[in-house]
Specification:
Length: about 850
């Protein structure tokens, strides 16, 4: 007698049906063998997703039928299945797409007998109206589409946060009411998916599923209605003829076309165009695409930089760069006067949608430009109050001298082309013609900073400050930020100035970029810096390659090497040559072969101080002591004519002597170095006085670290006092290091720990952790000391890219990432954790070959081996 299976009571379950689109034609296209391999990988994927999302596979004869306890589990399976199937296809250069239907309803289940299963029956049968409902949803879905019923959608939507960050970015869309064959009532259909994957298109009607629309919305009725509306609309349009308009929103971008000069006076070409830019750029509502960005786009269009920006070319650039409008200025002689006008052009149609004009004399042209600019800003939607607030009369903030304006405009072009020396000449000529041309002083300062001649920039910043009333608000903020940046002042105030500029003018990329850069260099603000660097990496920033490079450096400091590699590659693609930070990022991962290749390429192009320092560091990192010494000699020879370079290289050299040189020789070297930096501290007009204070504190720290107390106490006390007055995070940390090491050497490790712990906020110097490790060990807190040693060993990215002061501590920091392994072995041996100590020692030996260790380190290693 055949056993009849018992049917369980109805249960509320989530059903998911999926179908691999065009699977039959796929097999025909790729062949049986490759298809078998593909379906085997597909089965592994399904099994993995079942386990991940707690699903039960019921049937796979024609697609997949799965049961889930909760809708969010079914949705998670569907999202992962669609995405990973797509990736599987991309890897094989095949188009693999699946459709899915998700429904929640009651189902009946029963288990088939073992006898039935043995002859091909499924272990578990599922039936109920919920099953054909899910099947209808799946059948109507487009490839790559996930459709949900009205029952499943709110339950899944409410629980979407359980999917983590991905759940916050899901796209949800209603496709309206549908009729399913065999189902009496209409059903709401919803779609969910990830950006870039979900089609987000209305499913097609099929014989078994069609949209439930009222009679008046059906095709025939709609055609009649459209004809009536079109007839009425055409009549109304011809009667009213509305003025053209353009959808412009706050912070949208415009491209300024080349000035059409119809006066025959060539001197007006560059001067009036530059004046118009200065006037328009005062707005916080309208963003003007920079000349440099326009040049980049012309290069992508494979057109020469000299291409004239007429209506058509400027419109093409606007479309490529996502600018909302083109502004075409014109100057012409008219009835004995000079007329200045400007048109706002829709780049899609190249039609003029707004225009404004003003007549005046040549002497009043700047006032005319201001009037036209105000009209345009108002027509684009800027409020009158904002225009009044963010406008300074053009004659006040530029120059009434047309020749001075032209010289300034030529300087701007030269600066954009990287011809800094030519730019200096044009700016200086502009000041000769108009000594009160404040923006020219600011341009000179910016150019000198770009040439790394900051000392020459300071007088021009001071001159611009005296002419502050002649600067537009944005340039006044820019002046404040640079003045604070080049002064020995409060670093917090400096960063606040750049932050304020970036907040008020978020699309003026100097603000967010410099806030991130100075925050990184002066305060180790790695995580905060990523925000500013990301803002500056906008496609509309012509200098975005430097922003990508900075962000890559910040990712390296946070040991996010994959993100760093992507950003370095992007920066290189945009024209930023590999620099020392890119080399350091590779070295931090011990990818020395690749780092050596980049260094070789840099050596052929010429090395900077940072390049030479990282070369010394890499040699030290690999235990190549003779190479490191040779590179130090080469660096000092290369910088023989530069006193400041000599100071930097000497600091790097001394930082390495502390752990591989006998005390008497080190003491003499440190005292000589400290005396020299103390003399530099006394020179209050030295632009590198901050580094001199750092140098004195460094000598004190290295002396205490090596066990030498009392070295030049007066100079150290003075340096600590000056550091406290500057509110400079790096100097504050250096003072803490001296204080903590002094306390530790005096047998007061708890006092050392107290000041060190207060300094730790995520932005502290790397050496704070080294000092803390030794203080913990001296305090008998060996477990904590081991953890600190492990932290040091694992933060190689931070050790390599920390700036401290011109990265003179880089070599010491990186050496400590290796030394901490030996220190961990010593501490673990003291704790009788021999296995852990052996592992630490093995890692140390892998970094630095035992047979090549300097004497003091070899002795320490032998002691550990003996203890084990």
């Amino acid at each position: 007698m055949t056993h009849r299976p018992s049917i369980e009571a109805p249960q509320l379950r989530t059903l998911l049906l999926t179908d691999l689109c065009d699977s039959t034609s796929l097999v025909e296209r790729i062949g049986d063998v490759e298809a078998a391999t593909l379906f085997r990988d597909h089965d592994r994927l399904v099994l993995d997703l079942q386990q991940r999302w707690r699903g039960r596979l019921i049937d796979r004869s024609d697609g997949l039928l799965l049961l889930f306890e909760r809708p969010i589990d079914g949705l998670g399976f569907a999202l992962d299945y669609v995405r990973e199937l797509r990736e599987m296809g991309d890897a094989r250069r095949l188009e693999l797409r699946a459709r899915a239907g998700l429904h929640v309803g009651e189902v009946l289940t029963w288990r088939n007998s073992d006898e039935a299963v043995s002859v091909g029956a499924k272990p578990l049968e599922v039936e109920g109206l919920a099953k054909p409902m899910a099947a209808r949803l799946m059948a109507v879905a487009r490839p790559g589409q996930i459709l949900l019923s009205a029952v499943a959608e709110p339950l899944a939507h409410r629980a979407a946060r359980e999917l983590g960050e991905r759940g916050q970015h899901l796209l949800w869309k209603s496709h309206g009411r549908w009729r399913f064959k065999g189902v009496p009532d209409g059903q709401q259909i919803y779609e969910v998916g990830e950006p870039g994957i979900a089609p987000l298109r209305t499913p097609p009607n099929t014989p078994k599923a069609w949209r439930d629309i009222p009679l008046w919305r059906r095709p025939a009725a709609l055609a009649a209605e459209a004809a009536i509306i079109a007839g009425v609309g055409v009549g109304v349009w011809f009667a009213t003829r509305p003025a053209p308009a353009i959808a412009f929103n706050q912070r949208d971008w415009v491209v300024v076309a080349d000035l059409r000069n119809l006066t025959g006076q060539a001197v007006l070409d560059d001067s009036l165009e530059q004046a118009f830019r200065i006037s328009l750029e005062q707005s916080r509502y309208v963003n003007v695409l920079s000349d440099l960005k326009v040049s980049d786009t012309l290069a992508l269009m494979q057109r020469p930089e000299s291409t004239r920006l007429d209506r058509a070319t400027a419109s093409e650039i606007a479309l490529r760069d996502g600018a909302r409008a083109v502004v075409l200025p014109t100057v012409a002689s008219f009835g004995g006067n000079v007329r200045f006008s400007a048109e706002i052009i829709d780049p899609h149609t190249q039609a003029t949608v707004y225009s404004a004009s003003t007549d005046g004399s040549t002497q009043s042209m700047l006032d005319s430009i201001d009037e036209v600019t105000s009209q345009l800003r108002g027509k684009l939607g800027e409020t009158l109050a904002a225009i009044d607030r963010d406008s300074v009369p053009l004659p006040q903030v530029s120059s009434k001298n047309i020749d001075a304006l032209r010289a300034y405009a030529l300087g701007v072009k030269a600066y954009g082309n990287g011809d800094y020396r030519d730019a200096l000449g044009f700016y200086e000529r502009a000041l000769e013609l108009d000594p009160e041309f404040a923006i020219a002083h600011l341009a000179l300062a910016r150019t000198y900073v770009g040439m790394d001649e900051t000392k020459a920039a300071i007088p021009h910043l001071q001159a611009a400050e005296k002419l502050r009333a002649h600067l537009v608000p944005r340039d006044a903020l820019y002046l404040d930020a640079w003045s604070a940046s080049l002064a020995d002042g409060d670093v917090t105030n400096l960063l606040e100035k750049w932050k304020q500029l970036g907040t008020l003018y978020p699309d003026y990329f100097a603000g967010p970029y410099n806030h991130a850069w100075f925050g990184t260099v002066l305060a180790n603000r790695y995580r905060e810096g990523i925000t500013g660097a990301t803002a500056a990496a906008s496609e509309r920033n012509p200098l975005r390659s430097t922003a990508y490079y900075l962000r890559a450096t910040l990712h390296t400091a946070l040991e996010d090497y994959d993100s760093a590699a992507k950003d370095f590659a992007k920066a290189n693609t945009l024209g930023k040559a590999p620099g020392s930070a890119q080399v350091a990022s590779l070295a931090a991962q011990r990818r020395f072969d690749r780092a050596d290749s980049l260094m070789k390429a840099k050596s052929e192009a010429g090395l900077y101080e940072a390049d030479r320092i990282v070369a010394i560091t890499m040699a030290t990192d690999r235990g190549r002591w003779s190479d490191a010494a040779a590179l130090q000699r080469q660096a000092r020879q290369a910088g023989a004519d530069d006193a400041f370079s000599q100071r930097l290289y000497r600091a790097v050299e001394l930082s390495q002597l502390g752990w591989n040189t006998k005390v008497p020789a080190l003491q003499s070297s440190l005292r000589t170095y400290l005396d020299g930096e103390a003399r530099n501290v006394s020179q209050t007009n030295d632009p590198e006085r901050t580094h001199a204070i750092f140098g004195v504190l460094l000598a004190g720290y290295l002396a205490e670290r090596a066990g030498m107390s009392g070295i030049a106490p007066d100079a150290l006390a003075n340096a600590r006092k000056l550091a406290a007055g500057l509110h400079h995070p790096v100097l504050d940390d250096m003072a803490v290091l001296v204080q903590a090491e002094t306390a530790r050497r005096q047998g007061k490790p708890e006092d050392a720990l107290r000041v060190l712990d207060q300094a730790i906020d995520g932005r502290e110097l790397f050496q704070i952790h080294v000092a803390r490790m030794e203080a913990l060990a001296d305090a008998g807190k060996l477990d904590e000391a081991v953890k600190e040693a492990q932290w040091i060993a694992s933060h190689r990215g931070r050790a390599y890219v920390e700036n401290n002061s011109y990265q003179v501590l880089q070599s010491l920091n990186v050496a400590d990432t290796n030394l901490s392994l030996l220190r961990a072995a010593e501490l673990q041996a003291a704790l009788k954790r021999n296995d852990a100590a052996k592992q630490s020692l093995q890692r140390f030996d892998a970094a630095w070959a035992p047979d090549a260790l300097p004497g003091p380190l070899a002795q320490r290693r032998r002691a550990v081996v003996a203890a084990l």
